[in-house]
Structures are given as C-alpha cells and as structure tokens.
Amino acid sequence: MKGKVALITGGSSGIGYGIAEALLKNGVNVGITGRNKERIEEAANRLKDAGEGEVLAITADVSDLDAQQDAVKQVTEKWGSLDYFVANAGVGHFANIEELSVEQWHETIDTNLTGVFYSIKASVEALKKTKGYFITISSLAGTNFFEGGSAYNASKFGLTGFTQAIMLDLRQAGIRVSTIMPGSVATHFNDHQPSDKDAWKIQIEDIGEMVVGLFALNARTLPSKIEVRPSQPPSK
C-alpha cells in the first residue's frame, strides 16, 4: 500500500479522520477535504506525523461538482495518480417530517447522496487508470428506518442502493466499489460530544482498520456491502 494515493471527503474529524490516519500509517499519501478551511488545515497538521505517507488539506464542498473535480486534480497533480477514494462526508438533520425544513432536507440529500454522485463523477477516470477502489460510508440507517429520520434515512437508503449499482457499473473497468454501513460510532456527529461513556461504540480507528483491510484484499474478491455494529451495546 506504501506510495498509493487516497482522497477522503469529510476528513477533518470523525470517521474520515480515522481512515486518513490508518492509511497514513500504511504509507499512503492522503488528501483530505472539508468545507471549513481552518478545520481541514488543522486536521492535516495533526495528521502529518501519523505515518510515512504525506497529507494534503483541500477545502472543498462535496455538493459542488467543480470543487470535487478540483480536489481530484490537486491530488493527481501532487502525487501523479489516484488509487483510493473514500466518500465519507455526511450531515444529519433529525426531526419529525412536520418540523423538518426544506433547507435541512436539501442539505442532507445534497451532501449525503448527490455529493457521492459528484465524487464518483469527478474521480472515475483517474480510478480507471489505477484500477482503484471507491468506498462510500453509508449507515445502518441505510436499511433501518426510524422516527425523525426521514431526510437521513432517504439519503442513506439512496446511498446504499447507489453504491451497489455503481459497483456493477464499474467492476468490469477494474474499479472495486464497496459501501460500509456503521452503526453507533464515537464521533461528534449531530453535535454529540464523545466521552468515556462511548467506549462501547465503534471507534474511528476501527473503521480505519477496516478500510485498510479492504484495500489490502486480493483484487479478485469484493466485499460489496459491509454492515458493522458495536459487538456489545448497553442493555436496554
């Protein structure tokens, strides 16, 4: 894996940060993107000594196709190719359908679903050249609906189906596509503040190890959809 090149959306914190750290430890050169310039640059600064790989901070919004294309361009111009793309950026707005705003609906769909469409459209030609790997980070909410989750469920149900369809579209081109569907992860998602009470949850480094394992797997084998959940959640 050493010397390969990866691009990760939503890499300033949480799952994206954990994946970036795991790849850097394995000698992968990693570009991380985020909407907030200060946060993405601060994350890259913290990651610079994580491993042998180099890290590049890119300010980009996944809901902007031009920004996604520019992110791919920056990575390929710096390192010459693109081997791995992890479409991780996501948002969550949770409310009863009567209270969910039009703006919240559009931000959720534009980020969690359309943003991934833009990600593959921007990177597919580069990934063809390397017979690369494209991973999306969906959620168990992509198969399990819940009260107050209309926008989030719609985005993640859509993302799960979208990823499986493009897996079929792209496998003859040598591009492997998988979706990872985590349950409860100890992150700041939805304004949560991680603490010692989250020790039972999936940790960001666990998802990072999983991605490394997928990239290291023999190319003849493809785990196309992976559900992952805490092994021992608290008893209700």
UniProtKB/TrEMBL annotation:
Domain of life where this protein originates: Bacteria
GO biological process, one term: monocarboxylic acid metabolic process
Stretches assigned to the Ketoreductase domain: 4-189
Signal sequence coordinates: none
Ranges in a coiled coil: none
Transmembrane segments: none
Cited SUPFAM superfamilies: NAD(P)-binding Rossmann-fold domains
Family, similarity comment: Belongs to the short-chain dehydrogenases/reductases (SDR) family.
Classification via NCBIfam families: PRK07326.1
UniProt-recorded name of the protein: Short-chain dehydrogenase
Organism: Anditalea andensis
Organism phylogeny: Bacteria, Pseudomonadati, Bacteroidota, Cytophagia, Cytophagales
